[in-house]
Design goal:
Shape: elongated
Number of domains: 2
CATH superfamily of the largest domain: Phosphate transport system protein phou homolog 2, domain 2
Radius of gyration: 19 Å
Number of helices: 6
């Protein structure tokens, strides 16, 4: 394969990774928006849309494997391909968490709200902002931005612990709230994992640029 064709194909997989990131970010946003508005149809749509995310991730992986097999790339080019593959896997998993939130929303059905959703949407906003910045860090090969994403993971963890403690208090005070509180704990846990996966992406950007795994 001529060098020009290789570079074009390398650009294609990077562009598709950016597209996948956008798809996943929208999925997380829609899952929380549907939960907050108790919109069953929107929750089902998030679940249905996960197939497209899975297909995009698989397509990226297939193209990356083909590039490695045909070109045996070295050094920086190989790091780009490996980073794209690994980040695509992280994005697919984040899509699974959005799908999971959609399924939780369906399971909640017509159960009355336990409390106004405040901290869970905050977790979602932070996690999707981290995802957006991880993608931007990849596009611009920006180590400083990638590092800031890692730092924000602690903020999401703190919010998760806060949500967990609050919902546990509800359950201890009134056992009739256990089912509804448990559903919300699952949602918060999924969002905490979204932030963790996004942090993995930011660390992959650091490795891509420096060739070294961050501490």
């Amino acid at each position: 394969m001529p060098r020009e064709d290789f570079e074009n194909n390398l650009k294609v997989v990077q562009d598709e990774l950016i597209q996948l990131s956008s798809m996943v970010e929208k999925a997380v946003f829609k899952s929380i928006d549907a939960l907050r508005n108790r919109d069953i149809n929107a929750s089902q749509q998030v679940i249905d849309d996960d197939d497209a995310i899975d297909e995009k991730q698989q397509d990226i992986e297939d193209k990356c494997i083909e590039l490695i097999a045909l070109e045996a790339p070295m050094a920086g080019d190989l790091r780009v391909i490996i980073s794209v593959m690994m980040m695509a896997t992280e994005l697919e998993r984040i899509g699974d968490y959005a799908e999971g939130i959609g399924k939780i929303s369906l399971a909640m059905g017509d159960l009355p709200p336990l409390k106004p959703l405040i901290d869970i949407p905050r977790m979602s906003d932070l996690a999707t902002d981290m995802l957006r910045r991880s993608t931007e860090a990849f596009i611009n090969r920006d180590i400083t931005l990638a590092t800031s994403v890692r730092d924000d993971d602690d903020v999401v963890d703190e919010l998760y612990n806060q949500v967990y403690r609050e919902l546990l208090t509800f359950m201890m005070a009134d056992p009739s709230t256990i089912q509804r509180a448990t559903y919300l704990i699952w949602v918060a846990h999924d969002l905490e994992r979204v932030a963790d996966r996004t942090t993995n992406m930011s660390e992959r950007v650091i490795w891509l640029v420096t060739g070294q795994n961050p501490d």
